[in-house]
Description:
By secondary structure, the chain is an alpha/beta fold.
Amino acid sequence: MNKLTLDDITLQGKRVLVRVDFNVPLERNDQGAQAVADDTRIRAALPTIREILDADGKAILISHLGRPGGQPDPDYCLAPVGDRLEELLEERVRFSSNTTGSAVMDVINGMPDGSVILLENTRFEPGEKSNDASFAQALGQLADTYVNDAFGAAHRAHASTAGVAKYVEQAAMGRLMEKEVEALTRVRDNPESPAAVILGGAKVSDKMGVIDALARTADDILIGGAMSYTFLRATGQNVGSSRVEEDRLERAQALYEQAQDKISLPSDHVIATEMEADAESSTVTGDIPDGYMGLDIGPQTIGSFTDVIDQAATVIWNGPMGVFEMEPFANGTREIAEALAEATDRGAYTVVGGGDSVSALVQSGHTDRISHVSTGGGAMLTLLEGETLPGLDALTDK
Length: 398
Ligand code: ADP
Ligand code: MG
């Protein structure tokens, strides 16, 4: 990959602009103030931040949060994230309500080496998403060095994730980025076989390219979740009123024919007439009757999928097997999480990614029994597809 890492750059006495992924969920506390609801992403950035501080560099942190639409919005202010970071780091974290400009520059120049400042949400600026050159340059002016540690945003070519890199002396990957790229490149290019890929979730369109790419190196591709119904329909099955992406049927059929010996589709389903937590559910094998929709994989499918996982040396999982947010349809996803945890225990290399997949994994309580839990959804899929990540591409040697 030939990108620089923290090992290759000077940190001491440097102003190091670090793009982190602090796009965390917020909630209102009892006093009505915003607070961090899940600090997983903040924790994931700690190794890079600590390393810069230990080396006596200045850590200048930038991130996006939510979708404020290119203008300031108090609901997406990063200050509560800074408060949480301060607790986790056990170091003072300064906060700047400006993202660029001379006022921030003065604060940065005045703060001692080995200290940290968090700047306001990059998406308060219209130039962030448009990757505007003057906004990227204004970010670059704050620092000597740029470190990208926001793997979850690396598939986007924004000013803070890509554009800024050319306006600094040196640009490198942070430790989280390095770990993600290493783990995911390994399972993409050199998975120990037998290698199994489990895909599920809602959006078939996002995941087609991954099936295509991984069919080359994987031995088994298990498809569940909503996306399986587009494939089942493409093979001529009746799927009732299950979610189907009509405009992807042709592609699904082509993919299925091309990798038929590797692809497994669900043979039975948990069905209901509506997607409701208190819906009456039943199990059906084969065709789904009209008026019913498939909302989880059935017991027979769980059995055949877990048999494959039990034999695998490498397992990649993205996308829940059903509507795991509702108890009647949560079982398939839970059983797959359990099977992956057991596979890890006996020495398989397991990778899980995707926002909803990771929250399902957390719900199952097995997070610590997975070899690599990715912080990326779209970025993970893009990397697995073999497409370039703009956030990584920008880190060229100078
Ligand atoms: P990830 O975030 O892990 O990449 P996705 O966003 O692609 O996953 O998909 C997750 C969503 O898919 C969940 O909200 C889940 O309820 C939904 N889902 C899974 N199976 C089905 C199904 N059979 N019918 C409708 N929605 C489903
Ligand atoms: Mg999702």
